[in-house]
Backbone:
């Protein structure tokens, strides 16, 4: 099963858009999904591990796949595997 981690901050104006898209896709596709605040201890570990400089950052199966809000069809292509 595909594992998706969305790294966000509360002050990011684009993060709610990305969150809404992944929450909506979760209704149609089976994948592990987690939202992680970049300022939390867990988030800080991911920021350091992946050298995250901007949010939203979407990590798929332990690889940074997108920075920013990805196109929905590109996400579906990854989730549909």
Residues:
């Amino acid at each position: 099963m595909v594992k998706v981690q969305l790294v966000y901050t509360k002050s990011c104006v684009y993060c709610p858009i990305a969150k809404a898209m992944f929450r909506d896709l979760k209704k149609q596709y089976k994948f592990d999904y987690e939202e992680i605040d970049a300022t939390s201890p867990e988030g800080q570990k991911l920021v350091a591990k992946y050298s995250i400089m901007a949010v939203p950052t979407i990590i798929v199966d332990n690889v940074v796949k997108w920075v920013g809000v990805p196109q929905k069809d590109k996400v579906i292509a990854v989730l549909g595997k």
Summary: The chain is about 35% helix and 25% strand. The mean pLDDT is 97. The longest strand covers residues 3-8.
